[in-house]
Specification:
Number of strands: 0
Helix content: 55-70%
Number of helices: 18
Radius of gyration: 21 Å
Strand content: under 5%
Shape: globular
């Protein structure tokens, strides 16, 4: 009788979660994918900057606009065609894609990202929970669909979706190739290079990550040397790229700046970043790979002067990984972070930016704490889920 009751409850949970997932998909369609005019967005909007950079690379040998050479450009949507502010490899990757119609490219980009996330996020959960059933699969997908930052990242064509995929792939480590996603994503956008900290601090992943970073850079320089010379020329202007409208920015410098304390905000942001980088290196060196990746993500979030809503997409793999490992002390902070993902569907609630920032900081460090504890004590991962090691000498 007890077994039958448990089976009925399990079936009921699966049905309820499946209905909730269907409703969440409808919510995402009605509020973003089906009618983006409500939010003033358009599918694959940021891809225009990459396409324009690729076209300039073809025509002039450099993806950077004359406006960027003249000085920092305003961070506004109308400047997208001249706002290629990334290293040359991204423009080189878009050279063959620039022949596609913008609409087709946007659809393809979103489909690839959504498919990859639908595969890798459940794998992250299985990596830390030890198994993946229908119940947990629907729960993971439900959380992903309800996350406005993740939806916006895959919709808008910016790099946040790809960074999220890279973070999720790194969480599947440690292993010899665990740092490669960080190296690749760092080649197309500078700030994610901080994801290389755990890879460099771990012996078995250090050489492959550095080899990929150096090798791909060398090939890129050989193909388009002028682009790299130009990149060095415009780099000061790229580093002075303004943060953009304050209302959408959750970075510490912006939040504290709204209270007339920008210097305090910058001190808080860089302080968190420095602490997170140090923690990432230490955690990786002592074998706590997942916690080290989570710390690197925290450094990536709070260091720059901009923290847009879609940047928070990269915290979703941390939520999925940390949830099975969390206890009663850390789980409420993870719930708070998940609530921020949900509330961001309502633009008017961005007046709660200070509250959101506190929740994101607390949730990120709760994930680090939970994953560090789990790595130290858990023996729950079956052997078939263990990553393949490239060496037998561990960390040094």
């Amino acid at each position: 009788m007890r077994v039958e009751r448990r089976s009925i409850l399990e079936s009921g949970y699966v049905v309820a979660s499946s209905l909730a997932l269907a409703n969440a998909l409808m919510l995402a369609w009605l509020n973003l994918w089906g009618d983006s005019k409500k939010l003033g967005l358009f599918l694959g909007g940021d891809l225009e900057a990459y396409r324009a950079g690729a076209e300039r690379l073809i025509q002039t040998g450099s993806p950077y606009s004359s406006a960027l050479h003249a000085g920092p450009i305003d961070n506004i949507g109308t400047n997208l065609p001249i706002a290629y502010v990334y290293p040359p490899p991204l423009a080189q990757a878009f050279v063959p894609l620039s022949r596609l119609q913008p609409g087709m490219l946007a659809i393809a980009s979103s489909l690839v990202q959504v498919t990859a996330l639908a595969i890798v996020l459940p794998l992250v959960y299985r990596r830390f929970a030890g198994r993946l059933g229908v119940r947990s699969l629907t729960a993971v997908l439900l959380v992903a669909v309800l996350s406005f930052p993740l939806e916006l990242a895959t919709y808008g064509g910016n790099m946040s979706g790809w960074i999220t995929i890279a973070v999720a792939l790194m969480l599947l480590g440690p292993g010899c190739a665990a740092g490669v996603p960080g190296a690749l994503i760092g080649l197309v956008k500078m700030t994610p290079l901080v994801l290389l900290v755990p890879a460099i601090a771990t012996a078995r992943s250090r050489t492959p990550a550095i080899a990929v970073l150096v090798g791909v850079t060398a090939i890129s320089v050989a193909i388009a040397p002028l682009a790299w010379v130009d990149w060095l020329s415009v780099l000061p202007n790229i580093l002075r790229f303004p943060p953009g409208p304050e209302f959408w920015n959750m970075a510490p410098v912006s939040v504290f700046g709204s209270f007339g304390l920008p210097a305090v905000g910058m001190l808080v942001g860089y302080g968190i970043t420095a602490a997170a980088i140090a923690a990432s290196a230490r955690l990786a060196h002592t074998g706590r790979w997942a916690a080290a990746v989570a710390a690197a993500v925290a450094a990536l979030l709070f260091g720059p002067t901009s923290l847009w809503d879609h940047y928070l997409a990269m915290t979703l793999p941390l939520l999925v990984a940390a949830w099975p490992a969390s206890g009663w002390r850390t789980r409420p902070f993870l719930v708070a972070l998940a609530v921020v993902h949900l509330l961001l569907w309502i633009p008017g609630l961005l007046v709660l930016r200070p509250v959101y920032l506190v929740a994101v900081v607390a949730g990120s460090f709760a994930a680090i704490t939970a994953l560090a504890r789990w790595i130290e004590t858990s023996i729950a991962i079956p052997q078939r889920f263990q990553p393949v090691d490239c060496t037998d000498d561990g960390n040094r």
